[in-house]
Design a protein that fits this description.
Structural class: alpha+beta
Helix content: 25-40%
Shape: elongated
Mean pLDDT: 81
Low-confidence stretches: 1-22, 58-64
């Protein structure tokens, strides 16, 4: 029988008290000695752990960023110095002549001579009705979804001659336009804008916005959803020959609109009336038609067209 206070012999199994986390009084000094001897190794190991954490987080960040479209380029922004003068001619259906119907070649010559004598005008080109009709057809051909349609049966006899001009500087537009607009034989004067996206992208995908259209009739005033944008973006990226996809928000679209309007022309747009858009840069021209066919019927897409190259 074991007496009270007796200790265990070597043959007796150890009791629970020996499983405590107290311990060897020499252990801590030994650990300090080992850590001191292996200081560089411990520092290197810690650095590796930190580096792996950074790379892991950075890799996820880069992956997440790679799933987003590109922001619009910073520039350059085109200088809007081009203008157009629509001349009155019967029976043109696109113009209303405030001074009566024209059609007299001498009237056109007088207007052209006045513009050529204006020091603010650096170049001028006369377009016959056939030339104007060719320009109209080029504009119609930019559509990739078949939704850009004009009046049926339009021919060369339904459009009017025009004058295309270039100004010395954008600030000259209000004065030149004011003088020309008052001339007999002039229907109207307008800017002939250069697209900000010319040379930066080949295809424009306009998304549904706050303004109702026939295609976007079922959308809310807030426009497209994030899921619809993602669907369009994924479809674009899956097309062979696509080089880059840019996303233009309403703020950038408004800036583009303000840039394309002649100085002093008025009629400024509001931010909420702008449409968000995707712009696509291709490395293979054959991808342009594919984009039109693949994107035009996706939910949230208002129109698909080529960016004017002139």
């Amino acid at each position: 029988m074991t007496r009270v206070g007796a200790v265990h012999t070597a043959e007796e199994p150890p009791g629970d008290e020996e499983l405590s986390f107290g311990g060897d009084p020499d252990r801590e000094p030994r650990l300090r000695m080992w850590a001191s001897a292996h200081r560089r190794l411990l520092a290197a190991g810690a650095a590796v752990v930190v580096l792996l954490g950074v790379l892991g987080g950075g890799g996820w960040y880069l992956y997440d960023q790679s799933q987003k479209p590109l922001a619009p380029p910073q520039g350059p922004w085109p200088e809007q110095v081009r203008f157009a003068v629509s001349l009155c001619d019967a029976p043109a259906i696109f113009v209303t002549c405030p001074h009566g119907v024209g059609g007299d070649p001498r009237t056109y010559q007088r207007i052209e001579a006045a513009l050529r004598a204006d020091p603010a005008v650096t170049s001028l080109t006369f377009l016959s009705r056939y030339d104007t009709y060719a320009e109209y057809r080029k504009w119609m051909a930019l559509s990739l979804d078949g939704r850009r349609t004009g009046p049926e049966g339009v021919g060369p006899d339904d459009v009017s001659p025009m004058l295309y001009g270039t100004l010395r500087r954008p600030a000259d537009y209000p004065q030149v336009a004011g003088r020309v607009q008052s001339m007999a034989g002039v229907a109207f004067v307008s800017g002939r804008p250069i697209s900000f996206w010319r040379g930066k992208a080949e295809v424009e995908v306009t998304l549904c916005g706050s303004l109702p259209t026939k295609v976007c009739a079922g959308h809310t005033p807030r426009g497209v959803t994030d899921d619809q944008k993602r669907l369009v973006l994924d479809r674009l990226r899956g097309i062979a020959g696509v080089d880059a996809v840019y996303f233009e928000d309403r703020a950038h679209a408004l800036r583009v609109e303000e840039n394309r309007r002649p100085v002093g022309s008025g009629g400024r747009q509001k931010l909420e009336s702008m449409n968000e858009k995707f712009y696509v840069k291709v490395r293979d021209p054959g991808a342009i038609e594919v984009i039109g066919h693949s994107i035009k019927d996706l939910p949230g897409v208002d129109s698909v067209s080529m960016v004017a190259s002139e």
